[in-house]
Automatic annotation (TrEMBL):
Organismal lineage: Bacteria, Bacillati, Chloroflexota, Chloroflexia, Chloroflexales
Keywords: Iron, Metal-binding, Oxidoreductase
Gene3D superfamilies assigned: B-lactam Antibiotic, Isopenicillin N Synthase, Chain (2.60.120.330)
Pfam family, one: DIOX_N
Organism: Candidatus Chloroploca asiatica
Protein name (Swiss-Prot/TrEMBL): Non-haem dioxygenase N-terminal domain-containing protein
Superkingdom classification of source: Bacteria
Residue ranges occupied by any Non-haem dioxygenase N-terminal domain in the UniProt entry: 9-110
Keyword NADP tagged: no
InterPro entries recorded: DIOX_N (IPR026992), IPNS-like_sf (IPR027443)
GO MF term (any one): oxidoreductase activity
Length: 133
């Protein structure tokens, strides 16, 4: 497999999914390769309202500006589904410590029988953030 060198993050247009089967296959291969080799890319052609994108970015900034103790109220370590907040230095990629914060969201599912029933995201003081994302 040849590895591509990236000077900037690629921009992948989802409209190509609606193209003829050959172009669709080329696009899907590009998504697969970019996700595997680089792990990040921009997406266009998704149809998401620009105002919603603006709101999500605003709430994201608001969330990460909270005091650490508030963010830790939804710590991933307490989640039955590996969702929630991780502070800087808590994640590792290829054996290297990552110096980034993150918050993971996902679908609601019934917790495993031995896990508390209350969803930890209910503790977050930004009630509109989770449903919006």
């Amino acid at each position: 497999m040849t590895v591509t060198t990236y000077a900037t993050l690629p921009v992948l247009d989802l409209v190509r999914l609606e193209a003829d089967p050959e172009e669709r296959a080329v696009f899907l291969d590009e998504v697969r390769r970019t996700a595997y080799e680089l792990g990040f890319f921009y997406v266009t052609g998704h149809g998401v309202d620009p105002e919603l994108i603006r709101q999500v970015l605003a709430h994201t900034r608001q969330f990460f500006a909270l005091p650490e103790a508030e963010k830790l109220a939804i710590a991933m370590a307490n989640s039955p589904h590996f969702r929630g907040y991780n502070r800087k230095g808590q994640e590792y990629t290829r054996g290297q410590q990552d110096w980034r914060e993150q918050v993971d969201f996902g679908p609601e599912r019934a917790p495993l029988p031995d896990v508390a029933q209350r969803h930890h995201a209910d503790l977050l003081e930004l009630p509109e953030f989770r449903p919006q994302v």
